[in-house]
Amino acid sequence: MTDNEGAAVSQPRGVLSGYRVIDCTIAMAGPFAAQRLGDLGADVIKVEPTAGEWQRFAAAGGANGNRINVSFLSLNRNKRSLAVDLKSAGGKTVLEELVATSDVFLQNYRPGVAARLGVDYESLHAINPSIVYVSISGYGEDGPYKDRPGQDLLLQAMSGAMLSAGRRGEPPTPAGQYLADAVTGSTAFEGVLAALLHRERTGEGQLVTVNMLDALTTLQMQELSVFTVGGVPQERGDQPNAHVYIRAPYGVFATSDGYLALGFADLETLGTVIGEPSFAGMVPEVDGWTRRDELYEKTEARLRTAPTAEWLEKLLAVGIWAGPVYSYQDLVDDPQIAHNGTFVEYDHPTEGHIKTPGFPYKFSATPPRIDRGAPLVGQHSREVLAELGVTPERVTALFESGVVAGE
């Protein structure tokens, strides 16, 4: 890998090498999608306000850094920063010049903002007809909810998924990750790849729209089809089964020293292992549905009598699907994670040694890699302007007028 200034390296570039991406997104979903493109070799230019993108000042978990907080650091590697005032005439001209040389444009502005800035699809398509333009929103480009805040928890709540787990009458529990943001980011990433493939075949750019509500809804393809096609009601029971559409016992159970996850067990075999005689003769695909709360309650009572490691050894020995419930530290220390190389480590010039999740895919010929850590505000403004052919005199004028900012 290179240093944070992007010095040349000898490793092969990623599969998207040669594509230029303009990242005009904020928060998580858009930057996450753009980072995935950068990990695969695309030249991602993060166009942000001269004061810096919003996420630079909103540290998840209160994890502030030296000059870059962890939230921004985690979502903006393999990008260059061009800090420019898009509300100014000079800034708009700079962006138009950049669009003319680019392949992909991503934005997640509030409805109407892109048009006011002159960076809507129609405007940029007129400059570069082959541009792949990706617009990310909370609920859709238009419609009754278009002005609602597209915030992760609100979308999780609206997706219906929270009422597929837990106890009847108790408050629903959100996912333990920023699920709506992550799924939407991955969906936008897929949309870019598909649109680029179409462009390779036809030369035609296009508008790709992604919204968080649809992303989370379509993620539940199987569950919602059970409801809409199968007509099975979404009813939680009196015990916290992990999903209403999966037979019991299915969920997380307390042991004498922690927790374990258990799913799809043969009831008679499970009864033998945990010492529950009433499971004898039960049929999983019948009793697993009709006696869900009873099965959960009895399984939980038995599992509380011994430690997790002991139960896992016994359950796995007879082919019952069971596993540990990890903390983040357990996950980081896991031998399979180490074997997979799931985390990557590198040195950042201002934030020091970094250990962070790496890449969800592998390529034999063009592997993803980290060429640079998350940039400082406008760290690459001068570099990008020079690539656009902007004269030194004009660069100086842009900086002195405040249209462009940087290191």
Automatic annotation (TrEMBL):
Q: Keywords, A to Z?
A: Transferase
Q: Which domain of life is it from?
A: Bacteria
User: What SUPFAM superfamilies does the entry give?
Assistant: CoA-transferase family III (CaiB/BaiF)
Is the Membrane keyword given for this protein?
A: no
Under the GO molecular function aspect, what terms does this record hold?
CoA-transferase activity
In Swiss-Prot or TrEMBL terms, this protein is called CoA transferase
